[in-house]
TrEMBL record:
InterPro entries: SspB, SspB-like_sf
GO biological process, one term: positive regulation of protein catabolic process
Sequence segments annotated as region (Disordered): 100-151
Biological source species: Pseudofulvimonas gallinarii
Pfam family, one: SspB
Bias (Pro residues): 133-142
GO cellular component terms, semicolon-separated: cytosol; ribosome
NCBIfam families in alphabetical order: PRK11798.2-5 (NF008769)
Protein name listed in UniProt: Stringent starvation protein B
Length: 151
């Protein structure tokens, strides 16, 4: 049987549409340490960032099969944000926390192990959290208790 592609991009698009259709605000929880993540450094906390991807918060939102990209303003400065789909940890409605938490996706190859962080990424300060042999961060807890409303 042929290996199927990831269902993550399809679920992210569907949940984004569902949240917006219900008049709520879609938020993405992103592992900012993953390779290819481009977010302003001041938005990253504990290696993660929460992004409002609602229609009133972003411009040119593209929920592609491999990357989420959009323009947003951070402290009044227009910024291009890039999030590889494997860096998406969850998508949920800000108002009630309903959505989905995603399990971590494996690296594309064994060469990628230990390289969660792009030292040239905008959100990176270039300092590692330890030797490259450190295990990846543990996934967020499962269930309703894993997400909280951010105001």
């Amino acid at each position: 049987m042929a290996e199927m592609t990831s269902n993550r991009p399809y679920l992210v698009r569907a949940l984004h549409q569902w949240i917006c259709d219900n008049g709520l605000t879609p938020y993405l929880l992103v592992d900012a340490r993953r390779l290819g993540v481009r977010v302003p450094p001041h938005t990253v906390k504990d290696g993660k960032v929460v992004l409002n991807i609602g229609p009133n918060a972003v411009d040119r939102l593209d929920l592609a099969d491999d990357t989420i990209s959009f323009q947003a303003r951070f402290n009044g400065v227009a910024t291009l944000v890039l999030v590889p789909l494997e860096a998406v940890l969850a998508i949920y409605a800000m108002e009630n926390g309903q959505g989905m938490v995603f399990p971590p996706e494996p690296s594309l190859s064994s060469d990628d192990e230990g390289r969660d962080q792009d030292p040239h990424a905008e959100g990176s300060d270039g300092e590692g959290d330890g030797p490259s042999g450190d295990p990846p961060p543990s996934p967020p807890p499962r269930g309703r208790g894993g997400l909280r409303v951010v105001k």
